[in-house]
């Protein structure tokens, strides 16, 4: 392995450790990103679940959608953190230390993945307490984890791109609304067929729906029209485009 490759790996490791430490210090945002999805799940299950007919216990239906809400909250913190770096002058110090922009952005993405892993475990734990009963095979659990990880990576890197586009942390924070909106306009909380006809096209053909339906099929063995390859294609497309965009935007913002 060449010296430049080793130096790049050290930079990625150092930036990842820095971002994770920053996450630990931002207690309020961390607690919010962990607790708000849990509160939303409890609200949907106990306040609205009795009025929503999905053909099964509502908690069985809603958990995959709440997991994607977790991703939205967790990745939005990455957008704010990247924007803060770009506006605080720390990025200029990193450039003087010959730290690549890819390493800086990747550090925030790694921290987002860690946050989402913790929030996913928390949501699963609460879901089991309120009646969620998955019966996936070991292969199904592994596939579910892979699909969810791909979605987390895609949304986290997209969030980093938004953080580079935003001119302030407050502007980057508005990204939360965009990511939170996607699961609502999907099959996360109600079947797509119950929505107005003009919304069907968007709800069926956006990243959240195939991911959610694949998770349901893998975890619950239901009759959901799962589309794992469509879900992976969406994740790969968003991830690839976001990585390319962050390279361009970082150069533009630091020159």
Kindly describe this structure.
The structure is a single chain. The protein is mostly helical. Helix content is 79%, strand content 0%. It has eleven helices and no strands. Helix 2 runs parallel beside helix 5. The longest helix is centred in the N-terminal third of the chain and has 31 residues. It is elongated. The two termini are 30 Å apart.
Low-confidence sequence ranges:
none
- Report the helical percentage: over 70%
> Regarding quaternary structure, how should these chains be classified?
single chain
Mean pLDDT: 83
Biggest sheet details: none
Shape: elongated
Alpha-carbon Rg, integer: 19 Å
Q: What's the total count of β strands? A: 0
- Helices and strands, in order, run as HHHHHHHHHHH
Annotation keywords:
255 residues; mainly alpha; 79% helix
Quickly describe the structure.
By secondary structure, this protein is an all-alpha fold. It has helices at residues 3-25, 27-48, 58-88, 90-96, 101-129, 138-165, 169-173, 175-184, 197-204, 208-220, 228-253.
How would you summarize the topology of this molecule?
Blueprint: H1 3-25, H2 27-48, H3 58-88, H4 90-96, H5 101-129, H6 138-165, H7 169-173, H8 175-184, H9 197-204, H10 208-220, H11 228-253
